[in-house]
Amino acid sequence: MTELPEKVEDIEIRLLLEALFLRYHYDFRNYAMASIKRRLRQAREQLGFSTFSAMQESILRDADMLPQLLRFMTVQVSEMFRDPSYFRALRERVVPHLKTYPSLKVWVAGCSTGEELYSLVILFREEGLEERTLFYATDINHDALETAQAGIYPMERIPLFTQNHRQSGGKSSLSDYYQAAYGRASLDKTLRKNVVFSDHSLVTDSVFAEMHLISCRNVLIYFDKALQDRALGLFEDSLARRGFLGLGSKESLRFSSHASAFADFVREEKIYQRSSE
Amino acid sequence: MMRPGPQIVVIGASAGAVDALGAILPSIPEDSGLSILVVVHVPPDKRSVMAELFRAKCRLMVVEAEDKMPIEPGVVYFAPPDYHLQVEADKTLSLSGDEPVLYSRPSIDVLFESAAEALGPLLIGLILTGANQDGANGMAAIVGAGGIGIVQDPRTAFAPAMPEAAIAACPQVRVLALAEISTFLREVEV
């Protein structure tokens, strides 16, 4: 009988996710369960509800609860140039191909608070590609997008960003791109001049432009297999022929039904190239 | 009613992990039907050494876990540095970059608790040497969900704190020395 309470909780979680979708069109129903349960439990504890049913009632009736809950559901902290070898591979292996195009579109899908986006913009500037590139930075989390757009990070994170940048083969000094004041590093606003920030959901939205590079790192790990497939299908449809897709270092196309649409390009860095078919 | 035997072993180890795992994993025969998921606390420097280290020593296949990998019998999966390793109800693995738990990512509790929820009675939970409390809550979750709990005898552990915490959180676990754990895993009916 010890299993019974667990099962009730599973039902409650499913109902809560359904309620979020019906009421607000935030669709977490196909997120990977282990992570979503952990995050929801944290939210329930910290928001002070004794059950998910009680939380569901409050969310349904009180729209002010939504942003509070979303903070738990989509929180994501990254680093600039996280996994320097990935950015080195982009620089050394992918950039030479991109240089053959007169104009470029790059999509940072699930950009969260912007660290990956700015890493790419700096890399493109160093490689002389920034001027011909339009960057799309998308996320479902408004707060995160606002942080990304502001481009201000705590100063104590800068040493790590700097070290990563150097290891990624950076051709300039990261300090060229920010101003430090009051314990915060404020990124140069010219880094944003070719960036479009936008609300976009990999779960419910569709293709919006033809991309030459899509970077989507450590986002798909939060999706279940069906949703991963949807997102990868979206990437397949969004990429120009022979366009590039970069995933997180522990993510893989191997278990997806879209695997055949892509070829390994830099295998150990999870950089794929869309087939030319 | 036929109760399915244990199929999946989840192991948590910290300080002293390499030697303790070295006394267990290499002795498991290649035809063992067990799947083994391991979290070792390693610095988040993004280099993965554990899988490589044990690949050479083990008769089982040893891999570093990737997102959405199916859990197969006869394979040892190590959590990659800087990610939590989790078990989903469809017997696949998932990773997460959520914040560290008890200063750890990967976290033993995260693996054990997700496994307990997904596959409770199919589990053996095993806590080895370590100098913190990680895994104690997870062990209680596994035993509470009908799995088997085993803890390395703290008197034989390089660092006794982690086994002691697991025993305190879950007094009904079996407390065994490394050689006995190794025998148990070799002989368990899968």
UniProtKB/TrEMBL annotation, chain A:
UniProt key word Cell division: no
Give the molecular function GO annotations.
protein-glutamate O-methyltransferase activity
Q: Name one GO biological process term.
A: methylation
**The keyword Cell membrane belongs to this UniProt entry's keyword annotation:** no
Cited InterPro entries: Bact_Chemotaxis_MeTrfase, CheR_C, CheR_MeTrfase, CheR_N, SAM-dependent_MTases_sf
Sorted alphabetically, the keyword list is: Methyltransferase, Transferase
Domain CheR-type methyltransferase: start-end pairs:
1-277
EC identifiers of the protein:
2.1.1.80
Which Gene3D superfamilies does the entry mention?
Vaccinia Virus protein VP39
Q: Which protein are we looking at?
A: Chemotaxis protein methyltransferase
Q: Which organism is it from?
A: Devosia equisanguinis
Q: Which residues form a coiled coil?
A: none
